[in-house]
Amino acid sequence: MVPFSSLKSYMIVGFILVATIPIVIIGLTSLQTISNGMKKEIEHRNILLSNSLAGETDRFLKESVSLTRQIKNILEKKSLLKNHQIIEYLNLVISNYSFFNRIKILDQQGIVHYIAPFDKNIIGINLSNQDFFNEQKNPNSPYWSNTFISLENGFPTISLSMKYANGIVVADLNLAALNAIVSNIRLGKTSYTQIIDKNGVTIAHINPKLVLERENVMHLDYIKKGLEGQEGTFNFIDHAIDKIASITHVKSTDWIVAVVQSEEEAYQSIKRIEFILLAGTTGAIIFAIIIAIYILRGVLIPLFHLSESSREISEGNYQAQLPEKSYREIDHLSASFKKMMQSLEVRERMLRSSETKFRTLIETITYGVRECDVSGMITFCNSAYDKMFGVKPGSLIGEPIWHDMPGKDQEEFIDHHKFIIENQPYHTPVVTRKITKAGKIIDVKIDWEYKRNEKKELIGFIAIITDITKRKAAERELKRSHEELEQRVAERTKELSIATEASESANKAKTEFLSNISHELRTPMHQILSYSKFGEDKTDIVTIEKLKHYFSQIRNIGARLMSLLNDLLDLSKLEAGQMEYNMDRHDLRRLTENLLMDYKALVTEKSISLRFEDSNIDTEVWCDKQRIQQVIHNLLSNAIKYTPELGEILIFLKSDQLITKNGIGNQKITKGIRISIKDRGIGIPESELDSVFDKFVQSSRTKTGAGGTGLGLAICHEFVVAHGGQIWVENNLDGGTTFSFILPDQKK
Q: How many Cβ atoms from other residues are within 10 Å of residue 10's Cβ?
């Protein structure tokens, strides 16, 4: 692809580049060479300065060592000085050499014998715990301590110690002289010189505050490199300012000297040179550009006229004037353009005629016609297409063919379009949905065909769009009606099946109930008639006790019949919704104990152990006394009935929680009292536990010998539910069942 939109731009830029690139290269090379040379010169100057300061520091330290060694030599020749003369000599040294703060003479045990200036408080002090006493190994070599702030004058100080035959000479050196040297060295406003000891502590600086505060600069990169043994000039950043630091080591110690300067200040002269060179280079470039434009002007003006004429021709003006009498090459080009212009004029007339016929045909078609390129952008659509979607003619040109599709349909169509581009399968119609300008969703069928150029390359698609909304609606309605019919048939079939099963179950339960009730009525009646006949036939020969027994049996059997009739009556009232409840506060413990008295003879007769366990709680509840007694009576009589001889029945009361659900699925927890009756009877199959409280339903185990109508537990369930409680049954792990019910301990 040509990087310029016009020959004019290309030639101007080319000439400018040819003229200016050498100037730029020479200028930049010169600038770089001069800049590098000046930087090395500046860095060399700073290195010389740091070397000079290091030499001054080294001379200061060597002079201190020489004087200290002189003191040591004199002390070793003790015959030269007497005790009072030693003090006078030390004071003389301090007065002549101001950098000595104090001189101490210690014996071999570390005891101070002499001090100058004299201080009686220090004479006799044991300094054997100090580093200079313990660390010094070689008597001929000096030992330098870490720097510290003197308590006498507040200046940074270092101790120099040397051993001799009878002890140690310790001289405290005032480093203020070094600070004075450092303060006098200035390269600029931002420059400073510093001396750093082996621990990274500043011992000399233009700012005395940093010295007095013993600032540790070990964290700075150039300090760290210097203490590691490196020398030279280093670049670093301090408080967002670019700086350079020239490092030199002090030979006598592990100290370093650093000359620090900001890059802006250090390289200020370089920037001036750079400015002059850049200004000169820029002037040369401008001059070169002016010359290039002047030379190109004579060539570009005819080319510009030719370009303008070409633009007019492209817009349909075949009478445009072409440049003449210019350069020979341009004249030849103008002649070729003139021939091409005449040929294009003829072809355009033919093309307009053909296009007119095509558009007339397309516009008469009632179906929507649309053309698009390979990317899916609409390039043409007829008036029927615009009318179908309620848009202005030509307003969809340039829009993607999927722009008016709903979200999911759009994603599927884009994927389908990519698939066609990549694989070019056989063109099969596409059914999808589109949204009109009014917001209505319509169903459309798209019949399409590939559009190719002379080289058989795919350049786009042409499609005929048909509105099939009414047809799709009819299909959906037919499908919906069919599905509804199938659903109704299925639901009706299911209802009939359920009704059939319910009817069969009801008939079976009814048959079993009638059989049971017949048995329950016939057997007692036979017994009553038999005992009555015995009493009637044997009145004269039987004893009074025997007659009482007959009457007692008749009474018990009559009670059974009355209980059965009462169950039938209760069931009738419950189903009719006519059951009445007399609610009041009653003690469940007392109700249970009263009932147990009625069963005392029966459990004794079967040798059953009846045990009542009661926790020490309040067992009063809001209930109908008669109905709850009926529930307890029914559960207890069943337990006695199905518990074998020598068995055990356990009754217990305790506090519990009643959990119910409201209409929106939330749980409600209410305090309640639970009564449980646990027996050792025949139990209930697990599959029958959920249906044991249904009407006319008996356990398969009770049908085979124990009797019953299947009404008692159903009535118990209705009574408990009517009190707002719950009733259930569980099989015991060790045999038998446990029937339990909970009543709320408050008014429902």
A: 13
CATH number for 204: 3.30.450.20
150 within domain boundaries: no
| pLDDT (mean) for 349-373 | 76
Q: Taking a C-beta distance cutoff of 8 angstroms, is the pair 264, 33 a contact?
A: no
Query: Distance between CA atoms of 398 and 124, rounded to whole angstroms?
Result: 106
Domain that holds residue 727: 580-744
b/e 618-642 (16+ beta carbons within 10 angstroms → b): ebebbbbeebbbbbbbbbbbbbbbb
Residues 196 and 228 in one domain: yes
If one counts every other C-beta atom within 10 angstroms of the C-beta of residue 645, the result is: 8
Q: Is the bond leading into 208 cis (omega within 30 degrees of zero)?
A: no
Which of 402, 432, 461 corresponds to the end of one domain?
Answer: 461
Q: Kindly report the number of other CB atoms within 10 A of residue 37's CB atom.
A: 11
Residues 437, 518: one domain? no
Rounded Cα distance, 31 and 39, in Å: 12
How many domains, in total, are found in the chain?
4
- Looking at the fold, whether 535 and 662 belong to one and the same domain comes out as no
- SS3 (DSSP) at 661: strand
Give the 3-state secondary structure of residue 396.
coil
Statement to judge: residues 595 and 740 lie in one domain:
yes
In a domain? residue 737: yes
Specify whether 618 is located in the same domain as 710. Answer: yes
Residue 432 within a domain: yes
Q: Are residues 498 and 612 in the same domain?
A: no
What percent of the chain has a predicted confidence (pLDDT) above 70?
A: 75
Q: Where are the alpha helices (DSSP H) in 267-324?
A: 268-314
The Cα 302–Cα 291 span in angstroms is 19
Instruction: From 579, 602, 637, give the residue that closes a domain.
Output: 579
Q: Does residue 548 share a domain with residue 483?
A: yes
Check which CATH number belongs to the domain holding 557 and give it. Answer: 1.10.287.130
Kind plus residue range of the DSSP H or E element containing 718:
helix 712-722
β-strand pairing of 100-107 with 726-731: unpaired
Closest CA relative to residue 377, chosen from 363, 390, 396, 394? 396
Name the burial class of residue 428, with classes exposed (0-12), middle (13-18) and buried (19+) by CB atoms within 10 angstroms of its CB: exposed
Q: Are 64 and 99 in contact (CB under 8 A)?
A: yes
pLDDT digits (tens, 9 = 90+) for 36-82: 777 777 778 888 888 888 888 888 888 888 888 888 888 877 655 67
- Distance between CA atoms of residues 324 and 305, nearest Å: 10
Instruction: Indicate whether 288 belongs to any domain.
Output: no
Please, are residues 166 and 75 in contact by the beta-carbon 8 Å criterion? yes
Closest among 257, 253, 298 to 49, alpha carbons compared: 257
How far apart are alpha carbons 748 and 743 in whole angstroms?
A: 10
Distance CA 130, CA 110 (A): 9
| pLDDT tier, 313 (very low <50, low <70, confident <90, very high otherwise) | low
Q: How many angstroms separate the CA atoms of 658 and 669, rounded?
A: 6
434 and 497 together in one domain: no
pLDDT over 70 (residue 637): yes
The single-letter DSSP state of residue 434 is E
